[in-house]
Amino acid sequence: MQERGDWPERSPWIRQAVDRLPRDVFAPDRLWHWNGHAYLPADRAADPDEWAELLYGDPDTAAVTQVTDGVATSSLSCQAIVVDMLDSLLLEPGHRVLELGTGTGWNAALAATRAGGDRTTTVEVDPVVAEAAGSRLAVHAPGIRLEIGDGALGLPSGAPYDRVIATYAVERVPWAWIEQTRPGGRIVTPWGRLGHVALTVADDGRSASGWVQGLAQFMPARGTTTEPDFSSVRGAGPAEDERPWLRDLAPLQEDWDLRFALRVALPGLRVAVAEDEDGLNAWLHDHTSWAMVSAVGDGTAIAYQGGPRRLADELDRAWAVWTEAGAPRRFDYGLTVTRDRQYAWAKDPTGPCWYQP
C-alpha cells in the first residue's frame, strides 16, 4: 500500500486504524480459494502460509470467508478498497455512521476508530455471520451497535445518520438509505458491482447525487439471483441474426473506462472477452438475449445474435456514443437518486443521462 501510494493523504487516520486493527484480527480461521473449478478451504492451523497468502498476498483481492452451495456469499473486502471507500466517506469524529453488511466486522471497527464506537451502527442479514462478527467486535471495538436485518431497509431506529456506507453492491440505491441520512450527509456504496459512488443528500432531502470514486468488483446483496452462464442463455439453437463485426475488441478487454461506460448505457449486460488461435472473441448476455463476436482468423470477426434484443448492435451503438462524447473516463460519471428513479450521467448532472431500470 505504501509503495503504491494507496494510503490517502487527506485521511491519515485510516492507516493508523489499520495498524491498530490489522486485517487478520477479524479474519476467520478458515478462508476459501478458487482453484478454477470450485472453492477449497484454507485453514489457519493446517496451512498457515496459504491462509496468510489469501489474506495479505494482494491488497486488491478480497478474502472469501463463507461459501454456500458452492457460491461465495461473504468476504473480507480487499484492503485497498476498504481504505478507498472509507476515504470517500469523509468521516469525522462524532459522525453518526450506519454500515450495511457487517461481514467480519473489520470495516465497522475501522470506522469506529474515527467516529466513535457509540456512534457506529452496523447491520448484517446473516445471523451466523453476525454472531461471529459480534464476538470480534466485543473484543476489538466495543460499543458498536450490531443489528441483524436487511441492509436494504437501513435502520430507521438510529436515523438520521451523518454517514452511510455499504459493503456490498447494489444495482439500485435503496431510497431508505437516503431517507435515513441527514441533508448534506454522505452515502458511499458499491454500485453495479463495478465501482463505488459517493452521494451527497440534497438540502431538501428529496435526492442524492455524486461522483464515481473508483473501480472494483463487489459481491451483490445477499439473495441476488445467481447469474446464468452464457451457454445456458445461448442454448443450442441457431443464431437468429449474424453480421460482420468491424471493431477491434481489444479495448473491450483492456479499457476499463469503456467497460464502465457500457455498464452505464446497457445495465444488466454481461460481457466476457477471451483470445483463441483466431483472435479475440466476446460473449454477451442479459439473461434472456445473447450475442457472440467470433474471430474468423483473417483479422475479421462475425457477430451472432439471438433472443429479444440484438446485443451486439446495442453494444456497437453505445460504444459509438461514448467515442463521440470524447471517451469520458470512469471518474467523469456520476449518479443521481430520487424516490422514483435513478440515473447516471457523464461530466454534468444536467446533461445527457441514462436511466437505470
UniProtKB/TrEMBL annotation:
A UniProt-annotated Pfam family: PCMT
GO terms of molecular function: methyltransferase activity
Enzyme class: transferase
Superkingdom assignment: Bacteria
SUPFAM superfamilies assigned to the protein according to its UniProt record, in alphabetical order: S-adenosyl-L-methionine-dependent methyltransferases
Localization of this protein: Cytoplasm
Location, primary (coarse class): cytoplasm
InterPro entries assigned: PCMT (IPR000682), SAM-dependent_MTases_sf (IPR029063)
CDD domains: AdoMet_MTases (cd02440)
GO term, biological process aspect, one: methylation
Signal sequence, renumbered to the chain: none
Stated family: Belongs to the methyltransferase superfamily. L-isoaspartyl/D-aspartyl protein methyltransferase family.
Name of the protein in its database record: Protein-L-isoaspartate O-methyltransferase
Gene source species: Streptomyces yaizuensis
